[in-house]
Amino acid sequence: MPIHDLSYRHWDGHLKPYTSLRWWVITKAGLKHLAQRKFVRLIVAIPPAIYILAHGVWIYAADRIPQVRISWPIDSRFFKDFILRIEPIPSGLLIGLLCVFGGASLIADDLKHNALQLYFSKPITWVDYLLGKLGVMVILLSSMTLLPAMILFIEHLLLVEDLTFIRENYWIIGSIFLYSLVVIIPSSLLIVTLSSLTSNTRYAAIGLGAILIGTPLVYQIIRQTTHSSEMAMISIWANYDILGSKLFGLRPGYASHWFWSLLTLVGMISLCLWVLRYRIKAVQIVKRSVKHTA
């Protein structure tokens, strides 16, 4: 039967109105994809769960078992070190693993399979795409820093016998939130940017490892040479630590002022956003050129 003789039913549906949460579809798909990979589930879920559980048990022992000698009091430093502590408990290592196994493939796989053109064939902008990819990392890192730190803080409030702690340390809640953002936003942008520069996830992982390991090594060489810690802003971990000490009212272990660390991270965030905008919008330009040519 010729196609012009076929009859079609009238579509009675309604188009969905514009929504600012279009990026959530991309985030949800990214999380679902990671959850389907057994090795990623093993790396991303089990070590952070053990780390969080150990701190929860420590708080319970400190508050409910007086026979235990507490060498690590539950104070502002406890929560600051929980979010990010390099030595001797490597929470920084866990954050690095989350970034590598959770974020190295976010854009690299799309470049490898030419999937960006498929994304932009839908009514989304490059900002929606970027927010969707960043949402995956923000959720993963929040599950390691912000959310468990808040839960541990509430656990301590419920276990202490009086309200002295909350009266004197209520501001720790705000410090936990801000310091988590200090760690989450630059780390998420960094791994997503590295992922956008290659179609091979291994190169993105190696690039992140070079930054996380290389910058502290360079700082240590300079420190040993100059016998000064004023160049601490070279190390990404030192920048996190300096700003964390400032937010939690602690004395930093570096001579560098916290303003330089803040300026360094803002500069890194700005550079990452510029690179991401350039890389993602380049695909949109190619898509439009092909459409006009057709």
Q: How much helix is in the residues?
A: over 70%
SS-based class: mainly alpha
- Share of residues in strands: under 5%
Distance between the termini: 30 Å
> How many helices in DSSP terms?
13
Quaternary organization: single chain
Which descriptor suits the 3D outline? globular
Question: How do the helices and strands line up, and which of them pair or pack?
Answer:
Layout: H1 23-35, H2 38-64, H3 76-83, H4 91-103, H5 108-112, H6 116-119, H7 126-142, H8 146-159, H9 164-169, H10 172-196, H11 201-226, H12 236-247, H13 258-293
Helix pairs in contact: 1-7, 2-4, 2-8, 3-10, 4-7, 4-11, 7-10, 7-13, 8-10, 10-11, 10-12, 10-13, 12-13
Short description:
The chain has 13 helices and no strands.
Attribute tags:
294 residues; mainly alpha; 13 helices
Task: Give an overview of the whole structure.
With 294 residues, this protein is mostly helical. It has helices at residues 23-35, 38-64, 76-83, 91-103, 108-112, 116-119, 126-142, 146-159, 164-169, 172-196, 201-226, 236-247, 258-293. The protein is globular, with a radius of gyration of 23 Å. The protein contains 13 helices and no strands. Helix content is 70%, strand content 0%.
